[in-house]
Design goal:
31% helix; Aminopeptidase; binds coenzyme A; eight-stranded mixed beta sheet; alpha+beta
Length: 377
């Protein structure tokens, strides 16, 4: 396709997709010097005015001839003047497949403009270019990109380790796809962590500043004994990887993890996890406590708040589940107390089903609780 003659102008009443112009170069320069753009894209660092001018006068026009369909996004500012908002692009990969790419000028972020621009781009791609599948890649941890793709209806099918090249490094990449016949709306429930207040605990979302306490708790021998997946030794990097993993589960609606905070100091005392969530059906419960919080009923109360949230009907702000399950290793008396005090029933024993920190296998005691039992308590 020839630039700019074959480049269509696409409008939805708020944003316009159009060919790039030389007078976009200043805004392109600002966008590509922005720290967020540099962190999450492959723009050259440092980025110069010559790079910006080369992008709009050479790279974009040459790209159109080679199946890189890049549009400038424009919207009106508060005074009604047209303003450059960023670039959205489909890269033809043959066989009616393309990759999507996007970047917003800092001014344009957080206004819903990129979502509108990408909807126009996708409808043009699926319609005029007769695409069947569009693939999305993002560096793992680029939540703004993931949330944008999620809103548009993309899947996120997982992480490919050390695949995305960026300035000499190979970074982990999230990958997902949108098909021509997919609905253009989120396909998973992106869970939020609701604050749950008790007398001795306050449950809240995990945060970066919890890392030192997580490291202490997971370095503890008792934690490591009962939770064999906890790496040994346990480092800051392990805690950060775990936080990212927890956020990924929220995004797919598969698990909801709370920090158990001290109600006065907000210090992290432990964590409760509702995982393997099957909406409107069931989930499993797991937990651990920092050693200095043990022995005073903290987890019994925290677990009780989570159980109540899980059984609270969906339209009253809970998860609306009908059954909860917990597995406790043979010999873990403290953990059995927590589930028994919270109304769980011992329903079975699976032999040699749980691995312990020393590599041995322990019998697993299965407990469950039904919503109607919880209501009757
Ligand atoms: C990706 C990008 C184009 C999205 O722009 P945008 O649609 O205006 O959206 P925002 O930047 O406001 O973020 C989108 C969403 O992610 C959320 N988000 C942003 N940073 C986040 C973070 N660190 N953690 C969790 N959520 C985050 C925002 O709250 C917003 O949520 P909402 O949809 O509920 O409103 C823009 O952030 C950008 O230019 N980023 C740099 C370039 C880039 O990453 N491109 C994609 C490469 S794959």
């Amino acid at each position: 396709m020839r630039f700019p003659d074959d480049v269509p102008v696409l409008r939805d009443g708020t944003v316009t997709l159009r060919p790039h112009r030389l007078d976009d170069a200043t805004a392109v320069l600002e966008q590509c010097q922005d720290a967020i753009s540099q962190r999450w894209t492959t723009v050259p660092v440092p980025y110069s005015r010559a790079d910006a001018e080369g992008f709009v006068t050479d790279a974009v026009p040459a790209g159109w001839a080679a199946g890189r369909w890049a549009f400038a996004v424009e919207a009106r500012d508060d005074r009604g003047a047209g303003r450059f908002c960023g670039t959205v692009e489909l890269r033809d990969e043959g066989s009616r497949r393309a990759e999507i790419a996007y970047g917003a000028h800092p001014w344009a972020r957080g206004r819903g403009l990129m979502e509108r621009a990408l909807r126009l781009l996708l409808e043009w791609g699926f319609g005029e270019q007769r695409l069947r599948t569009v693939i999305w890649w993002a560096n793992r941890g680029n939540w703004a990109s993931r949330r944008t793709a999620w809103r548009l209806g993309f899947s996120c099918d997982g992480t490919v380790e050390r695949w995305l090249a960026q300035r000499g490094d190979l970074l982990d990449g999230w990958v997902g796809a949108l098909h021509v016949d997919d609905e253009r709306r989120p396909r998973t429930c992106w869970l939020e962590v609701p604050a749950l207040a008790g007398e001795r605990v306050r449950l809240r979302a995990l945060r970066e500043d919890d890392v030192p306490r997580i490291v202490e708790a997971c370095s503890d021998d008792r934690t490591a004994h009962w939770l064999w997946r906890v790496p040994r030794p346990y480092t800051d990097a392990d805690a950060r990887a775990w936080l990212l993993d927890r956020s990924e589960h929220l995004a797919t609606g598969s698990a909801l993890t709370w920090a158990v905070g001290d109600p006065r100091s907000d210090l992290l005392l432990g964590c409760v996890n509702a995982f393997a969530i099957k909406p409107e059906r069931d989930a499993e419960i797991g937990y651990w406590l920092h050693p200095d919080a043990r022995g005073r009923g903290v987890m019994t109360e925290a677990c009780g708040l989570v159980v109540r949230h899980c059984f609270t009907p969906y339209d009253e702000g809970g998860l609306g589940l009908r059954r909860l399950e917990a597995s406790v290793a043979e010999g873990n008396t403290a953990s059995r107390q927590v589930v028994e005090r919270n109304g769980f029933t011992h329903v079975g024993r699976e032999r040699r089903a749980l691995q312990l920190g020393d590599g041995t296998l322990a019998d697993s005691h299965t407990y469950d609780q039904l919503a109607e039992e919880h209501r009757a308590r």
